[in-house]
Amino acid sequence: MDLLEYQGKQLFARHGLRVSSGEPVTTVEDAVRAAGELGYPVVVKAQVLVGGRGKAGGVKLAADEAEVREHAGSILGMDIHGHTVRTLWIEHASDIATEYYASVLLDRSAKQPLVMFSVEGGVDIEEVAENTPEKLIRHHVDALNGISREEAIEIATEGGADADVIEGVADALVALYEVWLQEDATLAEINPLIVTPEREVKALDAKVSLDGNALYRHPENQELSDAENEDPIERRAKEEGVQYVKLDGDIGILGNGAGLVMSTLDVVAQAGGSPANFLDAGGGSDAEKIKQAVQLILANDAVKAVLFNIFGGITRCDEVARGLIAAFEDLKPDVPFVVRLDGTNDVEGRRLLQEAALPNVYAARTMNEAAEKVVALAAGESVGAPA
Amino acid sequence: MSVLVDQHTRLAVAGITGREGSFHTLNNRRYGTNVVGGVTPGKGGQDVEGIPVFNNWAEAMQEVQPNTAMIFVPPRFAADSILEAAAAGVALVVAITEGIPAHDELRVYNLLKRDYPGTRLIGPNCPGILSPGKANVGIIPASFFKQGNVGVVSRSGTLTYQIGNEIAQAGFGCSSIVGIGGDPVPGSSFVDVLELFQSDDQTELIVLSGEIGGSAEEEAAEYIAEHVTKPVVAYIAGFTAPAGKQMGHAGAIISGTAGTAAAKAQALEARGVRVGRTPTEVAEIAVQVLGGASIAAP
């Protein structure tokens, strides 16, 4: 679960990291009011879950009311790499002497927390890692002991922070680690971590990803997920507890198990098609859940054909067939379906489908055959009689 | 032989009194797995179709000496249950539970390493381990698999069934099928299981089924190049997955430039591992390498 900048800064503030005062707004009028309260100059910042905001014109300095009005008006509704700006963060502008970089993340390979620090802040950190790796300090923390202040001072010193702000940077690193640990984050990143002319160390940006599996421990963070600028079908799927990710193509996909669904997307792409979604109906899906899933797939207007790829383990193929039959009765879809059922109760499932003689439903025995058929159908070609 | 579970397995199950827990425990027993007990706090003294239930792992250890623990409790209790089983001296813990917080997994991994090095954890969020003809610990539908000489290790459940089924249809069987799970910090990695298959007499070929996210496949590639002499055939799911979108499994997310399917396939191929582009192709390559249909062992 990725947080917007201002949400991340609210978590930072909770753990003692210094941030500028500001306010999230969704209208030009509120932007003007907030700016007046904060005091000029302010920065108008697009709140989107994608990098490169500044270059795209989504971050602007405003010296007075007229400029706030102008920038807020142009940034709201702006498209930044496919993300529509719905929220602005209006922040009192900071004077910047130096820009650093700091992050804490879960290093899956080392199976330890990784603290990173660089004096090359405010730029793409992946470029720093690539071109001047010696300027990016990578320090593993013992997950069982956590970070000590001495450790943080070593990191700041080794990284080459200015001598007079070593302590301030160390405090920021310790606080950032606490954000990562206490809030069940998988990533907590500050770029840039600035030093002001008054030598204050401050987080000017925030990138935080929270672990959705740990939200039960953080009821206060649960509402943050609603603020994501996500696709309306994805939001509906989340509410219904279905794993759905919208993609760009025109072939709807349903399968059981994340790995099998990913594999299905690949096989469809290899057959020359373009998947419209990832949908994992999960283990043990009953007829009702299958019907719900069909509704989600068809909610995307781009879908021209649908592929059901089921390998039943806990999931029973007869239940899947019943769900599909019920969905056809209720929804009367006008796009063709290709269904491949294998595994638990597959014979019964195939028999049910054959008896129901649904219009526009085609059977396939293997995954590859199913993929070829659905790609042909999406292209408007004939693949023989429905099963 | 086979790896991890076999006729010597003595299984006890945390969460045996739950709906899923009891269903799969009994399923495992029907397959022939020696189920010696269950653990549910507050329900000690009861039984599940003759399987004695204990209040905690220490009690279970004292009474029935399990060497394998299966964890079926809800995510918020799972970490403690794993650690309790380890503290009681259980050598193998198989955690089926899905949805355990990543920080809990990180803590469990490091605590096991520091305090209980004698305990091996498989999972969490995994389908378990099946050694066809010997024992089934978990939720893998055993009917799709025959006994044989192919070892399978996978991050995904259903994809394993798909690949296993293709191999079975080609006339081959499996020594063991090990699901390591799709979470960010699994207790055992590909490397750990590759090491087991390499030293297992029954296993003649290894199928490795990976997916996007993390670097476990790249690490497996390094390990194979240096330590594995048996042929390995790999599959990677997620070539069409976009960056930044989690594809079901908590671990299946491409972050930045790392963790793509293409990079993983390339890392494996660069070290001589053949990578099938579809599950069917994986089975075809396996058959080619093994040279015609033959099922080893009875």
Write up this protein.
The complex is a heterodimer of chains A (387) and B (298). Chain A is of the alpha+beta class and 387 residues long. Chain A has three domains: 21-92, ATP-grasp fold, A domain (Dna Ligase, domain 1); 98-226, D-amino Acid Aminotransferase, Chain A, domain 1 (2-Layer Sandwich); 232-378, Rossmann fold. Chain A has helices at 5-14, 28-38, 65-75, 125-131, 149-159, 166-182, 232-240, 258-270, 287-298, 317-331, 346-356, 367-378; strands spanning 22-25, 42-46, 59-62, 79-80, 83-84, 88-92, 98-107, 112-118, 136-140, 185-195, 201-203, 207-210, 243-246, 251-255, 277-280, 305-312, 337-343, 361-363. In chain A, the strands form five sheets. In chain A, strands 7, 8, 9, 10, 11 and 12 form a six-stranded antiparallel β-sheet that branches. Chain A has a four-stranded antiparallel β-sheet with strand order 1-6-2-3, with helices on one face. In chain A, helix 10 links the parallel strand 16 and strand 17 (337-343). In chain A, helix 2 crosses helix 3 (65-75) and helix 9 crosses helix 10. The longest helix of chain A has 17 residues, at 166-182. Chain B has two domains: 11-122, NAD(P)-binding Rossmann-like Domain (Rossmann fold), CATH 3.40.50.720; 145-290, Succinyl-CoA synthetase domains (Rossmann fold, 3-Layer(aba) Sandwich), CATH 3.40.50.261. Chain B is built from nine helices and 14 strands. Chain B has helices at 19-31, 57-64, 75-87, 102-115, 157-169, 190-198, 216-227, 261-270, 279-290; strands at 11-14, 35-39, 47-48, 51-54, 68-71, 92-95, 120-122, 128-131, 135-138, 147-154, 174-179, 205-211, 232-237, 274-276.
